Amino acid sequence: MSKIEEQYLARTARSAERGKAAEAVMPGGDTRAAGYHPPYPLTLERGEGPFVWDVDGHRYLDLVGNYTSLVHGHAYPPIVEVIRTGVGRGTAWPGRCEPQIALAQRLVERVSSVEKVRFTNSGTEAAMLAIQIARTVTGRRRILMARHGYHGGMDDTETGFFGSEGVHTLVAEFGRAESFEQVLSERGNEVACVVLEPVMGSAGIIPSPPGFLERVRDAAHRAGALFVLDEVICLRLSTGGAQKIYGVEPDLTMFGKLIGGGLPVGAVGGRDDLLAVCDPRAPRIFHSGTFNGNPLTTAAGTVAVEELTADRIDQMEQWATRLAEGLRAVAAGVGLPFSINHAGSLLNVFFTEKPPPATLVRSDGELITQFHLASLNHGLFFAPRGMIAMSTVMSDAFIDEAIERARGALADVAAGQV
Questions:
Q1: 77-306: which CATH architecture?
Q2: Which residue, 20, 135, 373, 394, is the most exposed by fewest CB within 10 angstroms?
Q3: Which of the residues in the chain have pLDDT under 50?
């Protein structure tokens, strides 16, 4: 056991205790794979602004915002207010509601490729619906995705996430348009849709290279397949999402995370003729869901989207750049190999001389594990895989403090390597 882990165990006794209680009623004591890490994850009790607190009373600078979903931080007052007002009127109704219409309008206004919107309750459900629409429209079953891309927890997409092809899943290499073009030229008549993240998230915040998305879209259309962009984490990168930055319009777009204002949400947007297969007046797909477009989520989401202005997006990118530069300098100062992937307000750190390609198997696994635990010991909270996301409620002083806390964590990691 490293000194870093010993310190973690010593300062998080209450989290360890609550972990045992969780293990008695949930497999592994958790209900969400992405946030789990050994020896056990923290048990959190509250969040406010850019901070979270654990049950042992420690405050952490939150550098991940519930995996990019809390773009305005925790308990953002305008969102709290609409939820407080709304909850007294009921949490879910058996008909449409004004907040639902308002959020759909905001998405149509902001994202140029979106003419109509259909709500779900998670990004996973959005992926399921987008693929179902594509299969219904094309009469085909297969999907083509990037190896190690993440599009939620359904069999067909998880197969590709883990790097394999499956019964209905084909994979190609992210960033290599010729890889997708080859698959589509050989098996395009089997493919209902190509699904891509403009910036790969779980694989390490990897931006699309210039021209990649356009070439894949064109190849998909030549094959008669739909082109679907997963903007679940990327919508925060501009007022029109990553597709505005890259200048490419998909047939369908998947949304989630920030459009719920901190509550469960998902959505599919796209061309009117494609979303029409869900039209209940003449349905080709019976798409339903008890909580789809519920008033609390859509009211909170409307505020989150409206308040994500271009100026705030630019400010988050500036903070991300400042944090990245600070981390590089500190790592160099303690003699650790270090690199960062950076896309707008999103970062992913690596203990390698340059960032690796999309992969789930990292050569720096031990170092990132120790840095993550050491950072928690120093009051920094980010994803175990090294992903970091800015929020609009941060400040220059917050970034300076994060760099100083990281300095202590990196020094602890370096000391353990001697």
A1: 3-Layer(aba) Sandwich (3.40)
A2: 20
A3: 418
